[in-house]
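Q: Protein A?
A:
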Amino acid sequence: MKKCTAFLLSMILLIAFPISAFAESGMITSGYTEDGIYYEVYGEQPSIQPLATGGTYVVREVIFDGKVTPERELFWQEAIGYVPTEGTLYLTSYLYNRKENKTYATYEGYLHRPQ
């Protein structure tokens, strides 16, 4: 029962606030997958330099056009404070919004300086 209630609450929040949470964090990049599906990536830029901690924890929100089953993990490269970083991000959740015909996916993981 708790899982059902949590799922319904998530659905209501996503329908009521479909992109506002993503847009507030700022767009990082956009592009097309190898299959030609348009996507946008949102997230906050960490204030901690990757060198200071050995790695920087990030959360990236990805919006895909259409109904998509996101990859479970993805290799990600990004400059944080002009410092190139990379790492594997892992899918933590995703949801398809039929009304907008978009898939919202959340990835989390650590980025570090390339070796």
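Q: Protein B?
A:
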Amino acid sequence: MNKAKITAAVLTLLLMFTVFGCSSSLEKGIVGSWHMGNQAGNVTFHDDGTFENQSVTGTWTIVENQEKKVLILTSDDGESLPCKIEDMSQDAIQARVEGDLMIWTRTK
């Protein structure tokens, strides 16, 4: 998985938290570490709005309207990746990133 896909996956996660609840609840819910799949590895979202994984660091923002919730990941080099949140629970997030469905699970 290339850097763009990883960034997209991270952004999608962030979007999911934005879409499924009020911003403060979503933001609190996203904080922590998530497993993004075998190739993407783990991503950690910090309460200060930053994220990191093995190869990408940056900021995350949740944008929400009546039709959708989107997690936007912006890498430190300025690339943004919107992730449309389709479903979210305390332990898993399903998001659409560049047309692909991605599922993240909270690490213990």
